[in-house]
Amino acid sequence: MKLPGDYKQTIEEAIRGDWYFLTKRADIFILPVWLKVGFSSRSRECHEVFGTNISWLLYWQNNEIELYLHAPEYRKAILNVTPRLYSLAGVKKQTQRLFAYCEDATKRATAFYDRDLSTYSNEKLLKLYKTIIEPYGLSFVNGFFTWCSQVLQKQVRSAISNYEKKLEKLGLTKDEALGVLINFEEITYYKQKEKALDELAKAFSEEVAQLPKLTANAVRRQSRPLDKKIKSFLSKYKWVGFDYNGPVITYEEVLKSVVQRDEKDHKKIAKSAIISACKFSPTEIEAFKAMSLVSYAKDLRNQTDDYLHYCLDSFFKEVGRRFGLTLSEVKYLWPEELVALLKGEGRYPRKYINQKKEHSMVISLLDGDVTHIYRYVGQEAKDLKEKIFSAKSADEKEPPVVRQEIKGMVASPGKVKGRARIVLSYRDINKVGQGDILVAYMTSPRFMPAIVRCGAIVTNDGGLTCHAAIIARELKKPCVIGTKVATKFLKDGDMVEVDAEAGIVRKI
Questions:
Q1: Cβ(5)–Cβ(82) under 8 Å?
Q2: Rg of the Cα trace of the chain?
Q3: Which of 62, 182, 188, 418 allows an S-S link to 437, with CB 3.0 to 4.6 Å?
Q4: Percent of the chain residues past pLDDT 90, beyond the cut
Q5: What single-letter DSSP state applies at residue 483?
Q6: Burial class of residue 384, CB neighbours in 10 A (0-12, 13-18, 19+)
């Protein structure tokens, strides 16, 4: 593949200012995030892969986290990685490295999977925990290239725009076609889970229809085969979509998914049909293949997060039991505080942990080849954050809301009207009814019950390979991503139109 001549300009336009705002999430605590981000900040492998270590700024306020990347290093990392993304062999090699670290971390984490840890000594718990952290950190480092694909994303969107007339003959928009072309063939647990639900729905459709009340108890009493299959499904997939804090998939969710499974036979067009009709150049085909590998890498990285944090939750709960802390209090410790606790070298009173819950900040700053870590708690963290971002440049500030509409990137085409439902965490998914517009910072696999019901998806953040984009294309739901301000612009109950042809979300 030939690297575009303007790729440096594309990177400069994409990553502006001093601190680049990556995302905001709800219900994300200190320990799970800093395990990997803190490791990557100081990792020698990060420097080897990206030509630089990358400084981060993470800010917590009342169970919400804001993540920022130091723009100078982030730009340098993208500049160094982009040429490798234009070699299909290079993308495959990086994906294979990621896969190896994900596999290693997953195997090690299994030591905590559904185990009774109460009989383990503090020393044994700590030893097992430490064996997981390095491969997990390295999986994050090697998966970071998925955040460095801005140039490749721009190129594939530009390339597909040249074939609109040919795609019309196939009954496809350019965005639908792009979704097919960058979809990956590799099987992840997310795909396995959805396929297993489809098979359950198909195998038990008649039986489910005859049940008088679709409750878990009714199924257990009247359909032993379905009950057995649901339990088997949960034993294999309950952790999928756990994200950082869960909860796991429940029996009731599986039953509801089986009942509500979309029975429409979406017509799927094969990649080969699109390639044959459009007669893409070899360079364009390679670009689509490279982008599909980036999509796969992102799924693989997220899948590893799910499994690791499901397993680690058992460990964190046991630590809390031993030291009189709740699960969330354990998750508000810094990693070295957790280690000190198990070694008997530290005690952390609730007052201190509650201060961290209200306001906490960590900054990793690169000074030459050395990364320095600075942490702040309580009012000091709040004051410093305000000081750092009080003098934002115009480029760093959120774009103003113009009249009654905002703009974003089309991830999956279509037009639909509905009531906006703001979903900031898993706790909010029950707000989303049939045909509602799901509005979020970004989505995760735990949002799937709401995604299945919604009429369209709108997010603040994300790119072509984000979860919302991939799932929306798969389910053929209109989706607009990267609006920056959707969760502020819209309120629960607002009547909105999602125009995912033009990338516009408007109040009506």
A1: no
A2: 23
A3: 418
A4: 68
A5: -
A6: middle
> How confident is residue 402, by pLDDT bands cut at 50, 70 and 90?
very low
- Taking the C-alpha atoms of residue 92 and residue 389, their distance in angstroms, rounded to an integer, is 39
Least confident of 65-74, 315-324, 329-338, 458-467: 458-467
Phi, psi of 72 (to 5 degrees): -55, -45
- Residue 376 main-chain phi, psi, to 5 deg: -140, 145
Residue located via tokens 């609006």: 483
For the domain with range 405-507, which CATH number is right: 3.90.230.10, 3.90.550.10, 3.50.30.10, 3.30.450.40?
Answer: 3.50.30.10
DSSP designation for 161: G
User: β-pairing, 479-481 with 456-459?
Assistant: parallel
- Which pTM was predicted? 0.90
H or E element, residue 240: none
Question: How confident is the model at residue 99, as a pLDDT?
Answer: 97
CB atoms within 10 A of CB 13: 12
Interhelix angle 174-181/150-160, rounded to 10 degrees, is 130
Q: Give the three-state DSSP class for 45.
A: helix
What residues pair up with 497 in beta bridges, in sequence order?
A: 417, 506
Domain ranges (residues) in the chain: 405-507
Q: At what angle are helices 189-203 and 251-260 packed, to 10 degrees?
A: 70
- In terms of phi and psi (left: phi > 0; alpha: psi -120 to 50; beta: otherwise), the region of 203 is alpha
Tokens of 87: 């070699």
d(CA 39, CA 371): 11
The tokens for 345 are 């070298």
pLDDT digit string (tens) for 406-441? 999 999 899 999 999 999 888 899 899 999 999 999
As a whole number of angstroms, the distance between CA 355 and CA 372 comes to 23
- How many other CB atoms sit within 10 Å of the CB of residue 394? 8
Taking CA atoms, 436 is separated from 205, 257, 258, 418, in Å, by 26, 18, 20, 5
Angle at 152 between CA 87 and CA 170, to 5 degrees: 105
Distance CA 165, CA 334 (A): 55
Q: How confident is the model at residue 404 (pLDDT cuts 50, 70, 90)?
A: confident
Number of H helices, E strands in the chain: 23, 13
Q: Is the pLDDT of residue 263 over 60?
A: no
Beta-carbon count within 10 A of 273 CB: 14
Burial 166-193, CB ≥16 within 10 A → b, else e = ebeebebbbbbbbbbbbbbeeeebbeeb
Count Cβ atoms within 10 A of the Cβ of residue 267 and give its class: 0-12 exposed, 13-18 middle, 19 or more buried. Answer: exposed
